[in-house]
Design brief:
Layout (H helix, E strand, L loop, with lengths): L2 H12 L4 H6 L4 E2 L10 E2 L20 H6 L3 H24 L35 H16 L10 E5 L13 E2 L3 H8 L1 H8 L4 E4 L3 E2 L2 E2 L4 H11 L5 E4 L3 H7 L7 H11 L12 H6 L5 H17 L20 H14 L1 E5 L13 E5 L7 H4 L12 H8 L4 E5 L19 H9 L3 E7 L18 H13 L3 E6 L8 H6 L2 E4 L7 H9 L32 H4 L17 E11 L3 E10 L5 E12 L9 E10 L4 E9 L5 E2 L5 E2 L4 E7 L5 H5 L6 E4 L2
Parallel strand pairs: 3-5, 4-6, 5-8, 10-11, 10-12, 12-13, 13-14
Antiparallel strand pairs: 1-2, 6-7, 9-14, 15-16, 16-19, 17-18, 17-22, 20-21, 22-23
Helix pairs in contact: 1-12, 4-5, 4-13, 5-7, 9-10, 13-19, 15-19, 16-17
Length: 690
């Protein structure tokens, strides 16, 4: 069913409702209208990295880890599995008459905000700090969720529009002051590109943007989103955000006033209860019936596109047996392996020979942690494999000893509860181990909607444990499980033989880590964020200027740069040329060789650098990516497309234009910066655009 047909059906259905009935349909928990054959419908559902909050489902790696694959194709495959499981759940929910929250087909994912600051607690819900990567991965996720059939397989939703990336504690009344240049250059592109890709929902943020609450912001919603970009889907408030309009932003006098301002600005659906005052606002002439009707039509257009009112429900044949099935767990495992980023491998210490190591120690608060696998906005998998579990399975000839070593973020002496002063236990394990795998990091209790981080340094108790372990065991591999930039400190960076950034790797994450350590697959992930030096001062958190932030505008030397990641082999970039070039796109050809001994999934990256431009431009701008599999000794020539949108300069007044200076395109495994090369990444090849 195309959009025009669905809208006509929606118009016909809505025309039969009273004004009060239409107003009630603008609530996220929309009531039934039995006389019209309309069942109650709860719009709120989540699918950040798997169907969430509704029982058993495949728990894929967290969103930031999906971005680290640098593979839109892989992310799209995961999203297709998520929507398959969504339909499987929906089919049974309908059969059993369960239409409660988290049972519908409108998923409020993905989160395409830009992780501009490493302290932001929700950064791990995003696809990282770069607008191009976020757009590419977000678009792939949306297409996988929504499918390509006659009906939507499920509905995706880009959030949180716009310019939301902390601070969490202040979000209900915070005003994000953003320049026109930063808005166009950084905060809006992913929303624009996902709208162009056909996303069916957009969620507004809690905060205000330049003085106007995001969910009542006519400039953002009606002018930009619906006007300039041609968005035809539904707009939903973040949960409780409409009450914030009057209670915290003080932009309205009361709930009726807030409801009217949001509706007039283009907010169709209220997650919360502010729109319970909408009919009262109508009776006081604060809104018109036509405005209520248009919002209801948009919502019922989506419900028709989902096939809710068809005599034969689409996708009804997807059975419950699909949930976290063997096939989906295999993709889960493959994705977790693709997402891990190898940051250090001194002297080729990894991979480990699983037949030669007699004793392995697995130490650290994430060694046996399920929360360290899950991230947040998670479902519940039918099987979890922690790092200790995975290492036991893969290194089945070794004696594997395990100790938590310490809690995540504190140490307490003389604790009656125990397990709070156990560093000596972890050190004891390390002292009798040939190799110690230190499983450090955070979990969703330390970063997330629970709040932002005070520091980007690994908690001191973990550093204390790690340094003590290094004193007793010469061969230490550090595995970091978290969702953001964490600095483990210079001493540990130097003493560890290898460092693997595993993120929140999903339910099969521990097995993925073990297989990578054993060399069953070469690591191939790339950093979707910059790992900052905790000793250096970050810009003021509440300042939304991009100056000094992310790889595009950073002024200090980071610990590890965006786009970086090693493998067990080596890729050499031999040459590159332009195959075609027009006003919209540039097609490149790059020749690449695997000069090592392992099969690799190389992640080709193209960066633009601007020189002599009168506009202030990023240091580098990622503008194309492509994964390519290479066997040992194999040479391939690959084509990549560069959309000229990404290599235009943005003026101070927020206009994209052809730059007046020179553009150089760098093609390689990483950024074309000195730090990446000094850390072991291969050199890039370059092309100057005429």
């Amino acid at each position: 069913m195309n959009y025009e047909t669905a809208r006509k059906k929606a118009e016909e259905l809505v025309s039969k409702m009273t004004v009060e009935e239409k107003a009630q349909q603008l609530l996220f928990n929309a009531p039934a209208i039995e006389r019209l054959g309309i069942n109650e419908y709860n719009w709120w559902n989540e699918a950040l990295h798997g169907v969430a909050r509704a029982g058993t489902a495949t728990v894929f790696p967290q969103a930031i880890a999906l971005a680290a694959t640098f593979s839109p194709e892989t992310v799209g495959r995961c999203a297709d599995v998520i929507s398959t499981e969504a339909r499987a759940k929906y089919n049974k929910s309908v059969e059993y008459g369960d239409r409660d929250i988290y049972k519908g087909l409108t998923y409020w994912s993905p989160n395409i905000n830009i992780a501009r600051d490493p302290r932001w607690g929700r950064g791990h819900e995003t696809y990282g700090e770069d607008p191009f990567l976020t757009s590419a991965v977000g678009t792939a996720f949306i297409k996988g969720i929504q499918g390509e059939g006659e009906f939507l397989k499920a509905s995706a939703c880009s959030k949180h529009y716009a310019a939301h990336s902390g601070p969490e504690e202040l979000r209900h009344g915070f005003d994000a002051v953003v320049s026109a240049k930063d808005m166009e250059e950084t905060y809006l592109p992913a929303f624009q590109k996902t709208v162009e890709a056909g996303v069916t929902g957009v969620m507004g943020a809690y905060s205000a943007v330049n003085g106007v609450p995001a969910c009542a912001n006519t400039e953002l919603i009606e002018k930009k989103l619906r006007g300039e970009w041609g968005f035809r889907g539904y707009f939903v408030s973040d949960c409780g955000a409409l009450n914030d309009i009057w209670e915290h932003h003080h932009y309205a006098e009361n709930a009726e006033d807030a409801a009217s301002k949001a509706l007039k600005a283009g907010c169709d659906l209220n997650c919360g209860d502010c729109y319970t005052s909408l009919y009262d606002a109508y009776e006081k002439d604060l809104v018109t019936e036509e405005e209520i009707t248009e919002a209801a039509i948009r919502l019922f257009t989506i419900r028709h596109l989902l096939g809710e009112f068809e005599s034969e429900r689409p996708y009804a044949g997807i059975g419950f047996e699909k949930l976290d099935c063997r096939e989906h767990r295999q993709l889960n495992l493959e994705t977790a392996m693709q997402s891990a980023v190898l940051l250090k491998n001194e002297g080729g210490f990894l991979p480990l020979d699983k037949n030669a190591i007699k004793n392995i120690g697995v130490v650290g608060p994430n060694a046996l942690s399920i929360t360290g696998l899950e991230g947040n906005y998670e479902g519940k998998a039918s099987e979890y494999v922690t790092p200790a579990d995975g290492i036991r399975r893969v290194f089945d000839s070794s004696e594997v000893r395990v100790s938590l070593g310490c809690p995540y973020n504190y140490e307490k002496l003389c604790s009656w509860d125990g397990h709070e002063n156990i560093i000596s236990d972890g050190v004891a394990v390390a002292s009798v181990s040939d190799v110690t795998v230190l499983c450090l990091g955070l979990d969703n209790r330390l970063e997330g909607e629970c709040g932002d981080k005070d520091s980007i340094r690994l908690p001191e108790v973990q550093i204390k444990l790690a340094e003590a372990v290094c004193d007793k065991c010469e061969n230490v591999v550090v595995v970091i499980m978290c969702g953001s930039s964490i600095d483990i400190g210079e001493k540990l960076r130097e003493r560890a033989k290898a460092i693997l950034y595993a993120w929140y790797p999903g339910a099969q994450g521990g097995l993925a880590i073990a297989k990578l350590l054993a060399g069953e697959k070469s690591p191939c992930g790339r950093l979707p964020i910059t790992i900052y030096d905790s000793e250096k001062k970050l810009p003021e958190y509440t300042d939304y200027s991009m100056k000094g932030r992310t790889y595009r505008f950073i002024e200090d030397k980071p610990v590890w740069p965006f786009g970086f990641g090693l493998s067990y082999s080596s890729a050499e970039y031999l040459s590159a040329e332009i195959l075609s070039c027009d006003d919209e796109n540039i097609t490149l050809s790059v020749k690449i060789e695997n000069t090592g001994k392992y099969e690799i999934d190389e992640k080709i990256q193209v960066y633009a650098r601007f020189t002599d431009s009168r506009c202030e431009t990023p240091r580098y701008q990622l503008c194309a990516i492509k994964p390519v599999k290479l066997s040992p000794g194999e040479t391939k020539t690959e084509e990549l497309n560069v959309d000229r949108f990404w290599i235009k300069a943005v003026t101070a007044d927020g206009i994209r234009r052809e730059p007046d200076g020179e553009i150089t395109l760098y093609i390689g495994s990483c950024q074309p910066d000195e730090l990446s090369r000094s850390l072991g990444a291969p050199a890039c090849v370059s092309i100057k655009l005429a």
